[in-house]
Structures are given as structure tokens and as C-alpha cells.
Amino acid sequence: MMLSSFHSCFSLPAFIVYGLVFQVHELHSALLKVMGPPGPVIVAVGEDAVLPCRFSPAQSTQDMEVTWYREQLASFVHRYKGGRDQNWNQMMEYVGRTELWKDGLAKGSVNLKIIDVQLSDRGNYTCFVVNGSDYDQAVVELKVTVSGSVPLVALERYQDGGIRVSCRSAGWYPRPQVLWRDPHGQHLPSLSESVTQDQSSLFAVESSIILTRGTKQNVSCWVRHVLDGQERGSEFYISDPFFHNAHPFIIALGIVSVAVVALIIFAVYLFKIKGKREKQIAMRDAALRDRDAAIEKQAEELAWRRYAVPIEEAKVVLDSDTAHRSLVLSDDCKSVRREEKTLKVTDNPRRFLQWRCVLGREGFTSGRCCWEVEVVDGGGWTVGVCREDVNRKGEIILKPEEGFWVVGQWEGRFQALTSPGRTFLSEIQPPKRIRVSLCYEEGRVSFFGVDENIPIFTFQETSFEGKPVYPWFWLGAATWLKVCP
Q1: Closest Cα to residue 146, out of 198, 194, 98, 193?
Q2: What is the mean pLDDT of residues 231-242?
Q3: 10 Å Cβ neighbour count for 252?
Q4: How are beta strands 98-100 and 49-51 bridged, if at all?
Q5: Which of 106, 133, 241, 475 is 20 to 30 A removed from 151 (C-alpha atoms)?
Q6: How many CB atoms neighbour CB 177 within 10 A?
Q7: Vertex 236, ends 234 and 240: CA angle to 5°?
């Protein structure tokens, strides 16, 4: 009861009361110990981060609840409860980017993986573990680094009997350190240093040094991360004729030559980047053309099958004996909505116990048929077909090997739940009305967006193992589905 109140009410008074309850139950929480790493986790932007968290003693995970919070407890990054992930209300910026390593649960590990880390992900994360009446938490700090450009060295002017040389680099996070080194690797003091920060929080640094004739003419400039010690540097050498004993025009010619060489190198660098970018764009355009051709071919095939080959429009009626007890069916069993309260219904072998889903009343063992479903999305949905023998009382894995051929708005992304990996349909707007087409003999389940008149996805060469398949409907929070005529 205490944890349910905590998840549903995030006001400041409730949080204070919850903290007081924590203190009162300190004896219980002492039984469970949650530990984070000894120091911060440091990850470069664009890489995947693993936030370590362990609990002891290791125990049964059946009733365990693991929640990762970001900075404050009002919203969560990832939640595991009741033996599965429950991320319907997770923070939007983490949708599809988090993964709890469940392989280590039995050994006391609840590590969290964050995919494609961004600079905005930096900060403190709270690992909160509850098992029965025991609970504890640990804080893990994530530090994100960004490596900037290779330092650009420029010869500026004569100053104080030598040549003033500057070193510039941009695009770093956190603030980097600029180091001048002689040929033996010894640090040289800089004349001046300036640091600026842009709107993206990235730092740009500039440092200057004065070189004199005969000493310290072979010098390098390095920009280094203070967190992980990674460096980027540029080395250069200035010969004696560039100093004061040379004629002014020779000095000027030398400086211009160095500048020209630097510009040439920089131009070659930009040309390579441009070539690489153009190649990436060409590859992407080719992939898009192939995809468009495949979609067009699929659309032609679907159109031919619908209008040239007889396809029966199935009269799908929802089966109330299979509906989860939190689903409310209309009187004509043509529409269904999800409510948080549960209905008083009798249990039977056909009723789904854990998952908020319902099947069609009639199954199919042959022929071609189709039906259309109207969707009012509140918190996700899936439609399609499933075999008669799927698990109805326990955990369900939506993939063809388990007897499910479905698509829908799942975990915040429109996708086909294929195997071994899901197929994300990011180029297609989730439809408000979707047609499901079944060809039993050929083992094909196709989905068609009625609103935009486009094909969505097709499961090919499916094996139904000679068993009946039924129309499948799963509803997320506040979702409403209707079987259309």
C-alpha cells in the first residue's frame, strides 16, 4: 500500500510523509542493501552507458520491484515490477533507450543500460529496490564527455622578441585542459588562455604562447579531457629564419607558407568529410529507394489480392470469455476499452489473466479473410492474430515463435513485433484505422493502413502448425478499440 501511494502521488507533502515512513521502517530497510559503484560512470556521447547497481543478499525476484529515477522521484527512467518491465509512464526522453539487465537479477545485479547517451543524460540516477517490506537505494552519477576538434595552431605576430602562437579547439565537454609541451614532453607555461561555452553547453578553448629563436621551437599543443585523460594534439616546428634575424619579407613569406600549408591540410580534411558525407547520403538515398520500391511492390500485391482474389470480410465479434477483467466490452461485442478498475468476472481456461487483451470469438483454420480495427490510442495497442494455444495465464512474449503475429504502438514506438529483433516502422505514421489480412494456407499475415491507403507490414511464410488462429487485441492504458464493418 505504501509503495502504491508513492507511485501515484508525487506532491511535496506526500514525498515528506513517505520519507518519514522510510525512517520509521529503518529496521526493515536494513535487511536489504543496495550498492552503486564507488565513483561516477564516464561515457562518451553516442556510446551506450551501463549504470551498475547491486543488492544483497541475493533473493527471489518474484516480488521484486526495481525503479531507476533521474534527479527527482516524480518520474522514472525505467521500472521493473511483477517479473517484467513496466515503462508506460517513463520519462519521454528515455522511451526505447533503456534496458534492465535481467540476467543478473538472481545474482543481485540490477544494472541499467542507456542506449546512445546524449549530453543531456548527465547527472545523478537513483537505483531504488523493493522486495516485500524491505527497500534501499543507491545513487549513481553519470558523466558524459564530448571530444572536440583537433587543435588548430596559428602563427599570429611578433611579440616580446619572439613569435606569438595560438592554439584553438572547440566542441568539448566538460571544460578541457590546454597543455603546451616541449620535445621532451615537459609542460610549458601559456601566455594567456580563454574559454567560452555555446548554447549546447560545449566548450571552446584558446591558449597562446611566445616562442623565441633557438629555444622551444619544436612544440606541441594538446587539449585533454579532465575526466578520462583522452587527448587530441597538434605538433609543429619553427626554424630560426622565422625569427628576428631574418628579413621581414622572408619572415612574412615563411608565415604565409605555413598558413597556406595549414589551409591545404584543412581543405583536404574538409574534402574527406564532404566525400564521406556524400557517400552516406547516397547510401541512405539508395536504401530509401529500395524501401519505396519494396513498399510499392507490396502495395501492388495487397491490392491485387484484395480486388483480384476473393477475400472474405470476416465478421469479427469479441469473445468476452477471453477478455481480461479490466477490459469493458460493448453490448454488441464490437468495441472494447480499458479501465484501471477490474470487473467481477468468472475465471475460465480461455480468459487472459495478466495481459489486458481479448480475442475474436471465431478462429480460422483455412481461407483468406480480413477485418478492420479503429484505434483511439491512449497508452499503446497491438492488433493481429495469435494461435489458439498461446499462454493465457502468465507472461506473454509477443513474437512469431510464441504464436503471435502483431503490429502496434508498443513502448512508445510504432513497430512490428518480429523476431529475433523488432521491426521499427518509424517512416509510417501510426494509423487510426488498420486492416488485418490473413491467408491461412500461404501462412501470410498482412497489415494495411486504411487512412493513408498504404501497406504497413507482412509476416511471410508463417507456420500456424495446423492450429486455429484468432483475431488478437491488446490495449494499453486509456486505449479504445473498435472492430469496424
Answers
A1: 198
A2: 78
A3: 12
A4: unpaired
A5: 241
A6: 15
A7: 165
